[in-house]
Design a protein that fits this description.
Layout: H1 5-28, H2 35-62, E1 73-81, E2 86-88, E3 97-109, E4 112-115, E5 119-125, E6 138-145, E7 153-159, E8 165-166, H3 171-190, H4 193-204, H5 212-220, H6 231-247, H7 252-270, H8 274-292, H9 295-312, H10 320-334, H11 336-345, H12 350-374, E9 376-377, H13 381-406, H14 410-418, H15 421-436, E10 441-442, H16 447-470
Parallel strand pairs: 5-7
Antiparallel strand pairs: 1-3, 1-6, 2-3, 3-4, 3-5, 6-7, 6-8, 9-10
Helix pairs in contact: 1-2, 3-4, 3-13, 3-14, 4-13, 4-15, 5-15, 6-7, 6-8, 6-13, 8-9, 8-10, 9-10, 10-12, 11-12, 12-13, 12-16, 13-14, 13-15
């Protein structure tokens, strides 16, 4: 998608040729063909399939009729949002700007109505857009602009005023919207404004009420991942469910069913977008690694999950969140257990050793990508993440209970949410003071900087392994 469909088609052809050569080699020396050759053949075939699929999707996007319209052309668009509206930084005098990811149904240009699909980004002003739910059909007047990056987005639509008409949402999306609203209102009654805006982001990724200064502090201290639905959320919630079932001596098979139902409800509440489904899969894989302690099983599960997610949503291949999530999960599986054991062997208690190992592993494997994307690095990120790590799990569990009880019996929800107040205070205080230190470093962004950082991290890891072995 980044290099264009022609490069994808060429890559698919080259990989198919390699696969054919491997197949010829296997058939001629079937007795000598080992598992490594067969694995290589399967890998090349999968790569060829993904390259061909990416080329096909990219060619369809490039040939979309909206791409033929001049920049700034007015159209009447009919779209269906696929996620809740996200607020953008309020720098314009017109107030907050909202970003809505949506699926195009049709558009009208002049007297012609073109029924065609495709993914679009909608930029809009006004309070009307804040109340949209995924699944509602929205008709509005817009200007057409090219997409911001090389993915499967066909166009950016800048809305010219409020929607002309809004259709009803699906029943399950309406229910999820009611639960999210009740949760946010209960948090506003039980917590301070900063904590009330932060809690829905920590639990279900709803950052619509997150104050700008809290958002800035989290960005400066590399804590932004906490305000997005991630595999950590899923791991914590599923772990809490399984521990509760074990404490109640529930049959393991029934416990697995309950955990699966909890996962489905969480995905519905957080919206079944590609990022949330990615987090659900990564969280389940991470929980498998933590529960079994067998990295040999967790790593193939991670690879299988990546292949399945890319097959389901090809644009995840150029999604930064997907890359960071996969790398963080791989770090948890491959690096964190060994680093935790080394710390424990040198006198560190298990809980802080695990927290430090997880934070350091995630920092090491994701830093090259973060630098390549943002050119921003804070050396204190590991320390800040370790300091706030003990409160993340209880905030997530208590917040999830508050979200469930908010629509059932509000006094019980208030009790659970009041329990998060001191924990949220610590998280907000740590991020505020760490950001005030001004330790963020600005470095060149881009692939070259990311590659250099990746090489330095690899050398540091290899040097560390050699030192620990000889020492």
């Amino acid at each position: 998608m980044v290099a264009g469909w022609r490069v994808g088609a060429l890559l698919a052809a080259v990989l198919l040729a390699v696969a054919f050569a491997l197949w010829v080699g296997v058939t001629r020396g079937a007795r000598r063909a080992g598992q490594g050759v067969l694995a290589a053949l399967a890998t090349v075939l999968i790569g060829a399939g993904f390259a061909a699929a990416a080329a096909w999707h990219d060619s369809r996007t490039a040939a979309h009729p909206l791409r033929d319209l001049d920049r700034g052309t007015h159209v009447w668009a009919s779209v269906i949002p696929t996620d809740d509206p996200k607020t953008l930084s309020a720098k314009a005098v017109r107030g907050k700007q909202w970003l809505v990811r949506a699926r195009l149904v049709e558009y009208r240009y002049g007297a012609d109505t073109v029924r065609v699909g495709g993914r679009v980004l909608v930029l809009a002003y006004g309070d009307t857009w804040t109340h949209l739910l995924p699944g509602q059909r929205v008709v509005f007047r817009a200007r057409v602009y090219p997409p911001w990056r090389s993915d499967l987005t066909v166009a950016v639509l800048r809305a010219q005023g409020p929607p002309a008409s809004i259709g009803p949402p699906p029943g399950w999306q309406r229910t999820a919207g009611i639960v999210r609203t009740d949760f946010a209102e209960s948090a506003a009654r039980a917590l301070s404004p900063d904590a009330a805006g932060l809690l829905p982001g920590l639990v279900i990724g709803d950052t619509s009420r997150l104050p700008d200064h809290v958002r800035t502090n989290f960005r400066e201290t590399h804590l932004t991942h906490l305000t997005a639905v991630s595999g950590a959320n899923v791991t914590i919630l599923l772990g809490a469910v399984l521990l509760s079932m074990r404490a109640l001596t529930v049959d393991p098979r029934l416990a697995a069913v309950v955990a699966g139902a909890a996962l489905v409800m969480f995905v519905i509440l957080a919206r079944p977008t590609p990022s949330v489904l990615r987090a659900a899969v990564m969280g389940a894989v991470a929980l498998l690694a933590l529960c079994t302690g067998r990295r040999k099983q967790a790593l193939p599960a991670l690879c299988t999950a990546v292949i399945a997610l890319l097959a389901w949503s090809p644009d995840l291949a150029v999604d930064a969140g997907f890359t960071l999530s996969v790398l963080a999960t791989a770090g948890l599986i491959l690096l964190a257990p060994g680093w935790s054991e080394w710390l424990q062997a040198h006198g560190c208690w298990r809980a802080p050793a695990d927290a430090l190992a997880v934070a350091a592993a995630a920092f090491a494997v994701t830093t090259p990508v973060i630098i390549a994307l943002t050119g921003h690095l804070n050396p204190l990120a590991i320390a800040v993440n370790v300091l706030v790590a003990p409160v993340v799990a209880p905030i997530t569990v208590l917040g999830a209970l508050g979200a469930v009880f908010a629509s059932l019996w509000n006094p019980l929800a208030q009790l659970a949410l009041h329990g998060t107040a001191p924990l949220l205070w610590w998280l907000l205080t740590a991020s505020e003071h760490a950001a005030a230190l001004g330790t963020s470093i600005t470095v060149p962004s881009g692939i070259w900087s990311g590659s250099v950082t990746a090489g330095l991290c690899t050398l540091g890891y290899l040097a560390g392994r050699r030192i620990t072995r000889t020492g």
